[in-house]
Amino acid sequence: MTTLSDLAVSAAINTTSALAFLLVFALLRLQPINDRVYFPKWYLKCKRQEGTKRNGARSVSNIINLDWKGYLHLLDWTKEALKMPEPELIEHAGLDSAIYLRIYLLGLRLFVPMFLLSAIVLFPINATDDKLQDSHRFLFSNIDKLSISNVKDGSKRLWAHICMSYIFTGWICVVLFREYEKVMLMRLGFNDAQRRRPDHFTVLVKNIPIDPDESLGLHVEHFFRVNHPDNYVLHQVVRNGNKLAKLVQKKKKLQNWMDYYNIKLLKNPAFRPTTKTSYLGLWGEQVDAIDYYTKELEDLTTQIKTERKKVLDDPKALLPVAFVSFKGRWGAAVAAQTQQTKNPTVWLTEWAPEPRDVYWRNLSIPVVELTIRKLVMAVAFFFLLFFFMIPITFVQSLANLKGLSEKISFLKPIQDMKFVSSFLQGFLPGLALKIFLLLLPTLLMFMSKIEGYTSFSSLERRSAGKYFIFLVVTVFFGSIFTGTASQQLSNFVNESPSEIPSTIGNSVGQKALFFVTYIMVDGWASIAAEILRLQPLILFHLKNTFLVKTERDRKKAMHPGSICLDRNIPKIELYFLLGIMYAELSPILLPFIIVYFGFSYLVYRYQVINVYDQRYESAGAFWPHLHTRIIICLLIQQISMIGLLATKSADKSTPMLIVLPILTHTFHLYCKNRFEPAFSKYPLAEAMAKDTLERAVEPHLNIKSYLQDTYMHPVFKEAEDTDSDSEEFDQDPPLVPLKHSLQDGTPVPSASSATQMIIRYQ
Amino acid sequence: MTTLSDLAVSAAINTTSALAFLLVFALLRLQPINDRVYFPKWYLKCKRQEGTKRNGARSVSNIINLDWKGYLHLLDWTKEALKMPEPELIEHAGLDSAIYLRIYLLGLRLFVPMFLLSAIVLFPINATDDKLQDSHRFLFSNIDKLSISNVKDGSKRLWAHICMSYIFTGWICVVLFREYEKVMLMRLGFNDAQRRRPDHFTVLVKNIPIDPDESLGLHVEHFFRVNHPDNYVLHQVVRNGNKLAKLVQKKKKLQNWMDYYNIKLLKNPAFRPTTKTSYLGLWGEQVDAIDYYTKELEDLTTQIKTERKKVLDDPKALLPVAFVSFKGRWGAAVAAQTQQTKNPTVWLTEWAPEPRDVYWRNLSIPVVELTIRKLVMAVAFFFLLFFFMIPITFVQSLANLKGLSEKISFLKPIQDMKFVSSFLQGFLPGLALKIFLLLLPTLLMFMSKIEGYTSFSSLERRSAGKYFIFLVVTVFFGSIFTGTASQQLSNFVNESPSEIPSTIGNSVGQKALFFVTYIMVDGWASIAAEILRLQPLILFHLKNTFLVKTERDRKKAMHPGSICLDRNIPKIELYFLLGIMYAELSPILLPFIIVYFGFSYLVYRYQVINVYDQRYESAGAFWPHLHTRIIICLLIQQISMIGLLATKSADKSTPMLIVLPILTHTFHLYCKNRFEPAFSKYPLAEAMAKDTLERAVEPHLNIKSYLQDTYMHPVFKEAEDTDSDSEEFDQDPPLVPLKHSLQDGTPVPSASSATQMIIRYQ
């Protein structure tokens, strides 16, 4: 049993490391040399450039900050993070980011009042009972006295907990409802206020049947000219650019090596660098590096040209997938929401994702394969889920060092070393879990890609869904139930349905302290690590030293990253689960969660403003996902609560709680019905209104030329780019790698509010 | 334990009664006096009239059949039933009826090959083992030796059953797939080939928001003129005619009494009939009947006139519901499949049901109420489901007379009377269940009406869904598990999930003989009763004697009835469950089910051709419902099989079966995706093709005048009708109630194929 002092050590370690990260961050961000690591967003928006502050003079002050005044305001970044108002934030970083930040606010809005109420009502009720003093069956720490475990079986005090269940459920529903409504209105407002976007006019058509008599392009055109005669404008059949994309990718790598050796040569012209021909330059024949890469690059450039020409000309490279555009938003809305032919597996239409959001690779998957792929992935996920639990449970057992050392004698000395023991107890279990979970999202994203979703946003939502199941099963249930994974699974199957809630209800109370540790390691420390950006910091400086030749290269080296929705959202959902679960059982957990939400809000707001560059804009399409998951958390809590009360032999009061899940489910259905269509459909009235307005404002708009080539596989553009790049390079290689080269400040658009912001932020 | 001789008695009773019903039917249908009871369909189509066969001469031969030749061909009706080819049947009775008949054929197609295979493979395998001879734990009858119960635990013979599981599942899926495809094509072909129907152009719009500035009608018109500018034609706002409908209904009743007394007076002019003023004429003041009813009718006519005027003029009688029609099918398809405004709870559009199919009463339910109504009904259904089981279980316990008489001594003599005992054992349990279940569909339909569905077809599907759950839980599980309803429920909750399949698998084999009895009572006997039409026969003759004055009255008295999909389909689904379940466990059940399907097919085909008059045409909209339920039956069988094999300690082979439910579920998803849209959506390409064709064929069609007033509450027309009726009656009462009055045969449309049919059928 984890004791209070273990907890104190763990808290001390985690708080210290979090504070240390923050201090390092506060110092590093002031150094101009790191400017592109901590403010890449502004560089991408062309609103910040090196040295502008120093009036263009090159000096050591461009590398490190010598101005002592700056160090007096180490914590200014928190102020900066909070300063920008929300509408400006939406304009600056997009709606997805703004809505993402609202999740943290939602957490605060939920849990702060819940904690206050718990502290006033439940603490006195729990603390003044004395079950834990009477019984010697359980080991317990002082914190447990504040939890429901201290209330005697069958006590009338449990009525207070039942009332709180109703109050909490009501409160959560009210807050969730308001937030859903607000997010929906933000989404609609955003779509309304936005500039024209090609995806408003475009529909993605999949599984176009082959017509033996005409080409694919003509077939698409005829079909839509006939069936949407007043609306059809143009179409772009998708070409299979996967092979070309691979070649371009390979060329980029070679180009990097080429640059590296060129720079090496320039620095030391006397010594021509050599390389080996085989894998990673480690084996094979020794050759002159620059000659070798020049040759390889030339070969590849020819290959790319051939492949590009082939893909663009060959009708076999055409996929039965097309982006079809319409004259107005109304026409596109109609085409996206209706069935086209009597065979519902061909001419499948759906809203086209934003051009940036398209995951081109999956467009080449035949529709018939999709069902099989999904089935296979579902089975794979099931096995992954349950075999993954074995190492977790092993690490879990470490946390109970006392029990372990009783069995294994050589652990005894470790346990006697007070500090080491506390360290192991408090820090290790959470950390090991963390490392496991770090590798997971990539795997899940890979699985989702195999499932064949065609946009990044849907891929991320799908991954997030899997990850949430993972977190709930492995972290939450995996911590509550002990035993190996297969034991747990067979327990679940062999126990009666009425026993499972009791088991959860019973053990969940005893695990509060473990979850406090988890929150500190996974929550606090990792958020602090997030703001430090250690990996991008190192990568940037490495690239800047070895690869960067031009301003554009430096821009490429920045790696601003983006909010990984597929990693972050499930984690937040887990904290919602913990918060909702422990609000009644052991409210002492809530302050830790509140600190997590508050701290995360601050850090992510700062990062959104200064760092992240979102790959796409889905206008908050992830909210229904989040809302549903929070409702699931609430249901898990209610069922556990029923189970717990049943074991506390509160027979009279337990049936009172059965109404709660039913009401919650009804609330969920209502919300789904009320709000979800706004996230998946484009209402005709809105579409018509925007079309009419546009026609009045811009009567001579040529929609055809606006839409031409908007949905083109980016690799075709890139292939062109790299062509011109390499030619440029061949003709005129830069003489010196420009580190922090100074350029005339390109004039910043003066009238925009963003300019004022830059001034404020510098 | 039911023995073989019990079974024989039961089979004898049921077969005899079924044959008796058939004989009576064969005799009655030959009597001209019953012509309107057994051939109402032809009268409604104006293709048959009394006395046409006898060349218009009134004689006793118009009442009973004196032609002895007719009696030689008693069984001709079976030939008649099978003679009409399917396309003609569709034209004659509609697609719903034709597809309904295919369900029975589907049963035959499934179970005949399954029985043959079982008989060849499983009978020898089961019969040559000897578990039941070894063990004395179970009482068993000879039939059980052919079932899987006779195979020893852990025997290698069980591999045969596992193989059969795969073969059967594969066969069922193949047949279901082909049938679904066929039905879908029939539906699409039917819609294609059909004449213009108003519901193809019309969309039902619900929850229209109130606009304070304009009337509801104008608001609807403006909304659709703006958002569907090229397609909108007209709209019909629905008026609340519920009160008027009640008044009209009441008037019809009074009119019936009035007619009754008028006829009484005419027969015996010396004696003026009297009645009492209160409930049903049983209490209250004695008054002259004709004066009293004349007065009452006059009052009611005035009331109806006032109410009708009020409803038609008062804007408050307008409901926020409208039928909106479009210029073409394309426009209607677009409006029906898209979301109209950003608030998804207003301007809800859906396909309008056929005018005959609209359930007007529910159109007045506010949309916000619907969620609550559904929730309440779900809870009510849950309670109904589990408290309903108490009487069933009581009756079940009767079947085990032996066990009962051991406890209750005075039952001993009954058990000793061999025949009575067998009768009770074999006949009573099924009969009692049957009486219970007879009352149920009406209740379930009532519950579905409360849920607020707005078309008869959806009401029937909804009721059928509930009834299916009922049948599965009460008849199937209720027979398998013994004990009271609450015991069973608590068993289910307290048993572990892995035990439930074993329990089912274990007991299901022992219940085979009970289900044979059930099939004979519920299936065979009730189908024979169906063709006899005893209730309509009596009612028709009563009405014909006491109420009928004119030819139109006689038409009204016919009551052809229709196939009650909400009663029949769940029953058929239960037989599918039994068939699929016992095909492996105890294949001896299959012949009984095959006889049921064959006999039903014959009887219903006869009835569809000669009797039933469908209230509406949904073009087979119930098929997805049926398909899903059969898949559910298959899943229940697979899970029971896993449980059974687990208890037979076939540990190695059982896991082989776990793949089956997963495959079945995948098959279901595929079918859903592939076929279901054809039952809920109108594809745009089809709509456009039909529109284009129509425009070419009828360029001057005035669609507006075609659609005008198609969606009008029938009560407004009826109110008019009854007005004119009563006036007509007041002015010119017929002097004599015309029984079998002869009229000049109205000329039958000569060119149609139907005429030839009539000749053939007379």
From TrEMBL, chains A, B:
Keywords: Membrane, Transmembrane, Transmembrane helix, Transport
InterPro entries, alphabetized: Csc1-like (IPR045122), CSC1/OSCA1-like_7TM (IPR003864), CSC1/OSCA1-like_cyt (IPR027815), CSC1/OSCA1-like_N (IPR032880)
GO CC entries: plasma membrane
Keyword DNA-binding: no
Domain CSC1/OSCA1-like cytosolic: 200-362
GO molecular function, one term: calcium-activated cation channel activity
Domain CSC1/OSCA1-like N-terminal transmembrane: 7-179
Localization per Swiss-Prot or TrEMBL: Membrane
UniProt biased composition (Acidic residues): 720-731
Signal peptide: none
CSC1/OSCA1-like 7TM region domain boundaries: 373-645
Primary localisation category: membrane
Pfam families for this protein: PHM7_cyt (PF14703), RSN1_7TM (PF02714), RSN1_TM (PF13967)
Location of region: Disordered: 719-754
Chain ranges passing through the membrane: 6-28, 103-125, 158-177, 375-399, 419-446, 467-486, 512-532, 574-599, 626-646
Membrane topology of the entry: Multi-pass membrane protein
Domain of life where this protein originates: Eukaryota
Family, similarity comment: Belongs to the CSC1 (TC 1.A.17) family.
UniProt name for this protein: Uncharacterized protein
Naturally occurring in which organism (per UniProt): Adiantum capillus-veneris
